[in-house]
């Protein structure tokens, strides 16, 4: 059992390492995209200022930037991730959740890290946690139910 658990732990660590590397690559790509977007915005801003220089009137200086009222923080569609990237992120999150669920199931099977104590019924050989099932005991044996206790008693007496 320990060898199986060690193998599961190594596989889990390797998988986590690969996922971490993928996440780092994705973050780097996103940072590069943000930098490019910021550079494009700066360039558009300087081009806009060159194309629409402030004009002098008798009321003072007027800025001729044509924002068309699009100053809202969500109006810029460049902030949204492309659909493919969103799907990739969702897929990674789904896989991570599945892995965690499998790891939890393995821990339950092995009785590790959960803080719960387990016992195995000496008749039916099923594993139970002592939090939800109180074992019936007779001599050094433990049973999940009275029927298992009686059946085992009959087997021993034969």
List the helices and strands and how they pair.
Layout: H1 2-51, E1 55-57, E2 60-62, H2 83-110, E3 118-120, E4 127-129, E5 136-138, E6 141-143, H3 146-157
Antiparallel strand pairs: 1-2, 3-4, 5-6
Task: Describe this protein with a few key phrases.
158 residues; mainly alpha; two-stranded antiparallel ribbon; two-stranded antiparallel sheet; 3 helices; 57% helix; rod-shaped
Task: Provide structural commentary.
This protein has helices at 2-51, 83-110, 146-157; strands at 55-57, 60-62, 118-120, 127-129, 136-138, 141-143. By secondary structure, the protein is mainly alpha-helical. The chain has a two-stranded antiparallel ribbon with strand order 1-2. A two-stranded antiparallel ribbon has the order 3-4. Strand 5 (136-138) and strand 6 form a beta hairpin. Helix 1 runs antiparallel to helix 2 (83-110). The chain is rod-shaped and about 100 Å long. It starts with a helix and ends with a helix.
* Rg of Cα set: 32 Å
Largest sheet: 2 strands, antiparallel
Record field, number of beta strands: 6
Which blocks of ≥5 consecutive residues have pLDDT under 50?
A: 58-62, 64-79
Distance between the termini: 32 Å
Number of helices: 3
Which percent bin holds the helix content? 55-70%
Structural class: mainly alpha
Specify the overall morphology. Answer: rod-shaped
Chain-averaged pLDDT: 76
Order of helices and strands: HEEHEEEEH
Strand order of the largest sheet: 1-2
Q: Name the beta content range.
A: 5-15%
